[in-house]
């Protein structure tokens, strides 16, 4: 066996960019991208990507491993760069559009970006970020504006413009060949909700395997019509930027997830698939979804935060067929998927929703995923659905590592595993379920309280549309749960006494929140995750002092909601633990 060799005929480096020439060859005349009045075929998309890659190499002089950053919503240019940038041998860095100028500048500096593409809508933000970089004395990247393809605005920032680079490129030029599948393909930054964002580097191999395994886990067939409700900057659209090309599908691009626009896009394009964080379900329900049904089923892959079973049940009634996934930036997007079993179809909707709320089993690009004890032994926990530990992963889709951050790499990789920081259990059928982020576990009087379990109950309250629970300091118990809720009917509001009574009826009394805070909207980052750091800050301000620990009178006040403005709140002080 040892004499057998790797040859060009039997060994080609794995890369997700190979899906594009295949789409050109197999699906060339089929629609690839829809954006407003703009439509491209796969043949046109292939040519546009090659043209852009040509301009990056020949006109702008980009070299292997140079970083190209982009600040843009889900528009055709954002999609095309997922192929064109790595085709040029460079590394694509998609930047969260909801960051402020300081954070954008920090990413550009840390990534040492050579080129910065900016959508016209974010020119002001980009200009402020570039000024911060210039003031610091660091190198400022070249800038190219992405004008609106459907309705050009004429907005510019410098001389370079995306469509001009595409037009002037040579689609027949010989582009750099990938020699090592371990080479970097993209650079993504973590959300930074608890610390400074870290640069997560994906390999061509990891991105390829993650894409194909997720297509199988979701059972996405040929020629899907995929609606881009998930930001492409989030883990490269959970790899579906490449995956839709692999299946010869249609990319329906929209700039914002407004309910009317989402429902209109679904109806006009006969959308079959979409991905989103659970927060988008609330947007769709508020947009009239509770009383309407879709003309045809839409398959939805959801993740980013554990979706409450009650919320899944509501959106399933509309016609959205939900598959729950779990992942993180460091795992090249989804690492677990709740693969559906035929025997579950016979169960009542509420039971199906409960099963779908679990995170599931590992995708095929992972060699292993498990839950281990949080000690030196790192022993696998029993598969009893009760024993808790930290979810750990290993496999080719796990990141290469954090860019220029050896300390974080040492902490993340331990004992042959990648440590996720998430607390979970394994059910007897092998399905993993998250119970909390390790930092979100509330320790009250020596008892561990999972915030997600309290949130699950809150979501079942008929007047609650959204909820989040964090730890609040308490002079006697150390910590107690503090609940932040949003009323389903803003005009009628939500009754705090009813919420407390509902919680006491449906959970152990020591788990019942000791305060209920009403917000118009919960703070969320661009990935749809509740920004619990901000809620913890508010909870600390509302914590009872020692001399008031036994107060029972409900009081009303206002808290500063930062970017949400002044928010009316009502909190119930120190309800009885028993």
UniProtKB/TrEMBL annotation:
Pfam families: AMP-binding, AMP-binding_C. PROSITE patterns: AMP_BINDING. GO terms for biological process: phenylpropanoid metabolic process. Residues 542-563 are annotated as: Disordered. It is an enzyme of class 6 (ligase). It catalyses: (E)-4-coumarate + ATP + H(+) = (E)-4-coumaroyl-AMP + diphosphate; (E)-4-coumarate + ATP + CoA = (E)-4-coumaroyl-CoA + AMP + diphosphate; (E)-4-coumaroyl-AMP + CoA = (E)-4-coumaroyl-CoA + AMP + H(+). GO terms for molecular function: 4-coumarate-CoA ligase activity; trans-cinnamate-CoA ligase activity. Keywords: Ligase, Magnesium. Its EC number is 6.2.1.12. Its cofactor is Mg(2+). Residues 22-403 form the AMP-dependent synthetase/ligase domain. Belongs to the ATP-dependent AMP-binding enzyme family. This is 4-coumarate--CoA ligase. It comes from Lolium multiflorum (Italian ryegrass).
């Amino acid at each position: 066996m040892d004499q057998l060799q790797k040859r060009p005929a039997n060994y080609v480096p794995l890369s997700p960019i190979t899906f594009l020439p295949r789409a050109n060859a197999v699906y060339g005349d089929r629609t690839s991208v829809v954006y407003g009045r703009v439509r491209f075929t796969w043949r046109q998309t292939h040519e546009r990507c090659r043209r852009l890659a040509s301009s990056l190499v020949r006109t702008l002089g980009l070299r292997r491993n140079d970083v190209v950053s982009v600040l843009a919503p889900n528009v055709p240019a954002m999609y095309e760069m997922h192929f064109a940038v790595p085709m040029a041998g460079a590394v694509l860095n998609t930047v969260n559009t909801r960051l402020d100028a300081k954070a954008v500048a920090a990413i550009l500096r840390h990534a040492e970006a050579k080129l910065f593409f900016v959508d016209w809508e974010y020119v002001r933000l980009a200009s402020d970020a570039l000024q911060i970089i210039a003031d610091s004395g660091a190198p400022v990247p070249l800038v190219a504006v992405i004008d609106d393809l459907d309705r050009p605005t004429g907005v510019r920032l410098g001389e370079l413009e995306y469509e001009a680079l595409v037009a002037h490129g040579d689609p027949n030029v010989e582009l750099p060949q990938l020699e090592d599948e371990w080479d970097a393909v993209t650079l993504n930054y973590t959300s930074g909700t608890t610390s400074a964002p870290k640069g997560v580097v994906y390999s061509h191999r990891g991105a390829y395997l993650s894409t194909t395994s997720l297509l199988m886990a979701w059972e996405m067939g040929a020629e899907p019509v995929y609606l881009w409700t998930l930001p492409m900057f989030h883990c490269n659209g959970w790899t579906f930027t490449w995956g839709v090309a692999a299946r010869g599908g249609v990319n329906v691009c929209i700039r914002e997830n407004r309910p009317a626009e989402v429902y209109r896009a679904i109806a006009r394009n006969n959308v079959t698939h979409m991905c989103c964080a659970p927060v988008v379900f609330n947007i769709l329900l508020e947009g009239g979804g509770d009383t309407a049904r879709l003309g045809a089923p839409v398959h939805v892959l959801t993740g980013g935060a554990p979706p409450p079973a009650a919320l899944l049940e509501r959106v399933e009634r509309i016609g959205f067929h939900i598959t729950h996934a779990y992942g993180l930036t460091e795992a090249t997007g989804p690492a677990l998927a709740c693969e559906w079993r035929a025997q579950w179809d016979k169960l009542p909707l509420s039971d199906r929703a409960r099963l779908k709320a679990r995170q599931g089993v590992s995708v095929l690009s992972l060699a292993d995923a498990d839950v281990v004890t949080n000690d030196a032994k790192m022993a696998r926990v029993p598969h009893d659905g009760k024993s808790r530990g930290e979810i750990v992963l290993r496999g080719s889709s796990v990141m290469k590592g954090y860019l220029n951050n050896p300390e974080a790499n040492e902490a993340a990789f331990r004992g042959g595993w990648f440590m996720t920081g998430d607390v979970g259990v394994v059910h007897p059928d092998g399905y993993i379920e998250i119970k909390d982020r390790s930092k979100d576990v509330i320790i009250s009087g020596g008892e561990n309280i999972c915030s997600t379990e309290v949130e699950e109950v809150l979501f079942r309250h008929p007047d609650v549309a959204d909820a989040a629970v964090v730890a609040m300091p308490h002079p006697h118990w150390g910590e107690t749960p503090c609940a932040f809720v949003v009323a389903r009917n803003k005009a009628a509001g939500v009754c705090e006494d009813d919420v407390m009574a509902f919680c006491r009826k449906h959970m152990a009394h020591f788990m019942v929140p000791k305060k209920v805070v009403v917000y118009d909207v919960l703070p969320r980052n661009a990935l749809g995750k509740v920004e619990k750091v901000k809620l913890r800050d508010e909870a600390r301000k509302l914590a009872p002092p020692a001399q008031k620990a036994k107060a029972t009178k409900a009081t009303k006040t206002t808290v500063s909601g930062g970017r949400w403005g002044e928010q009316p709140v009502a909190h119930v002080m120190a309800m009885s633990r028993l």
